[in-house]
């Protein structure tokens, strides 16, 4: 348990969630080569606790590759990734999740035949047990925790009234909300989102953006977003990192990025953002 008197009291916060300003994630000289192709070219970025950072760039710029390196789905060719000051490049993907990095919109994160509540419970159970294994003596308390966590998660993403529907019967936008919920059930410090609004109607997109804002406010979450929709990027980000051909060509606040001629040239061929 936390002895930090400043620690927020809600169940979803970690004991050190109040240390905003601390660097949570850092990549150092990160390189990923696929054969002769340099997909990630010497990328050094940092993300502070509580920040909302968007990664933008043209098709093939290396955005998804960077996310997949951070989640350890891809092996870097060179460089280091630090999370809470600890190198994670030798870790397995599940260990990275345990350290507090969660990615939403992973393919097939939903079990379609199970109810919304069962999906949330499985995610909460995985978060509770993780690599620590199953402890028979604490089974009862753990299960109570899991039920509460699943319920809190569904409430946070606005799906509690659909808890007993089969996941496959949810409308598309609600499925994406459930995916966010599944990622949140792991109680991450850092949420990575790769194109969360892809394939959504304008209404669903707005609802998802509102949800991301709510979650950020309620949970004090730090997130890194890959998104093509510039309206979303400019409205939601504290800071924007621009990639082109694997390298960082600009970094700054939405205002700074909007006025950056190099970004306009590289990213949109000179069209004003
Ligand atoms: N597994 C892979 N094997 C070989 N090349 C790859 C692989 N994954 C990505 N690439 C290449 O690396 C480069 C960066 O791809 P990546 O998917 O990271 O870009 P992106 O910025 O996410 O693009 P998009 O916006 O189109 O999703 C591209 O040239 C891509 O073809």
Number of strands: 11
Residue-averaged pLDDT, rounded? 82
Q: CATH superfamily assignment of the domain at 23-109 and 189-266?
A: P-loop containing nucleotide triphosphate hydrolases
Helix content: 25-40%
InterPro entries: AAA+_ATPase, ABC_AA/LPS_Transport, ABC_transporter-like_ATP-bd, BCA_ABC_TP_C, P-loop_NTPase
Region (Disordered): 1-23
Protein name: Probable branched-chain amino acid transport ATP-binding protein LivG
Pfam families: ABC_tran, BCA_ABC_TP_C
List keywords for this structure.
single chain; 273 residues; alpha/beta; Rossmann fold; 6-stranded mixed beta sheet; 5-stranded antiparallel beta sheet; 9 helices; 22% strand; binds adenosine-5'-triphosphate
What does this structure look like?
The chain has 273 residues and is of the alpha/beta class. The protein has a domain at 23-109 and 189-266: P-loop containing nucleotide triphosphate hydrolases (Rossmann fold). It has helices spanning 63-70, 93-99, 116-129, 139-156, 172-185, 202-219, 230-236, 254-258, 261-268, and strands at residues 23-34, 37-43, 46-48, 52-56, 78-83, 86-87, 101-104, 190-194, 222-226, 239-244, 247-252. A 6-stranded mixed sheet has the order 7-8-9-4-10-11, with helices on both faces. Strand 5 and strand 6 (86-87) form a beta hairpin. Helix 3 crosses helix 4 (139-156). The protein is globular and about 50 Å long. Mean pLDDT is 82; it is low at 1-18 and 131-138. Adenosine-5'-triphosphate (ATP) binds next to strand 2 and helix 1. Adenosine-5'-triphosphate binds at residues 34, 37, 39, 57, 59-65.
